From TrEMBL:
Pfam families named in the record: TetR_C_11, TetR_N
InterPro entries noted in UniProt: Homeodomain-like_sf, HTH-type_TetR-like_transc_reg, HTH_TetR, Tet_transcr_reg_TetR-rel_C_sf, TetR_C
Signal peptide: none
Keyword ATP-binding part of the UniProt annotation: no
HTH tetR-type domain location: 17-77
Top-level taxon: Bacteria
Ranges of the DNA-binding region feature: 40-59
Keywords: DNA-binding, Transcription, Transcription regulation
DNA damage found in the keyword field: no
Protein name: TetR family transcriptional regulator
Annotated SUPFAM superfamilies: Homeodomain-like (SSF46689), Tetracyclin repressor-like, C-terminal domain (SSF48498)
Gene3D superfamilies in alphabetical order: Homeodomain-like, Tetracycline Repressor, domain 2
Length: 206
């Protein structure tokens, strides 16, 4: 089954692209100022200068705009390649923390989780986006395997998940901030666990 492109992405480079950019930028600004609970199509229309009817026609709802924002931001974090697993994990942790340093980025992630909780279609898209991003950075682990730093049997996705999960627990559950201590502990925990064989599947039993 062919995946449908996000709403508002047709005819790239023309008026549609400019409209999409204005709407997504306005939605992100609104999230930073007022948060997800206050986000409405009318607010996005007022800030972007795009008529509310146009937004409803192309995105249908606030959730549609959030989905499109997620598609735009899913590849925005860099993938480190320092030649050393430990350093790569620290740089990735720092990139995650820096991304979530602004209120609008935190509100955006919260908005995607809230939207996913209320809409199964959004839930699928959010899951797929986070899965794709995890797959994108697993090359950090596969390169470490090639250098002999890790066992060839290591589960690269679990290494990245172990690094990332503490950030979302801190931000979404504890409502805290991603500080330098969290950057250090999440990277070190993922590194030592990977080196210690924690993410290598156990031998199959009888």
């Amino acid at each position: 089954m062919t995946e449908r492109p996000p709403h508002g992405t047709a005819r790239p480079g023309g008026r549609t692209a400019r409209t999409r950019e204005a709407v997504l930028a306005a939605a992100l600004e609104e999230l930073g100022v007022h948060g997800y609970a206050a986000l409405t199509v009318d607010r996005i229309a007022q800030r972007s200068g795009v008529h509310a009817a146009t937004i409803r026609r192309r995105w249908r709802s606030v959730q549609g705009v959030i989905i499109d924002l997620l598609a735009q931001h899913s590849g925005s974090l860099p993938t480190p390649d320092t030649g050393d697993l430990r350093q790569d994990l620290h740089e990735l942790a720092r990139a995650i923390a820096d991304y979530h340093a602004s209120p609008r980025s935190r509100n955006f992630i919260e908005a995607t989780i809230v939207a996913a909780a209320h809409n199964p279609q959004v839930s699928d898209i959010v899951r797929d986006a986070f899965t794709a991003r995890t797959e994108q950075v697993t090359c950090i682990v596969t390169r470490a395997v090639a250098r002999g730093e890790l066992s060839p049997d290591v589960d690269a996705r679990e290494v990245i998940a172990a690094l990332s999960a503490p950030f979302y627990y801190r931000l979404l559950v504890l409502r805290g901030t991603a500080d330098d201590r969290l950057v250090h502990t999440s990277a070190e925990a993922a590194y030592h666990a990977a080196r210690g064989g924690v993410f290598v599947p156990p031998p199959s039993g009888p």
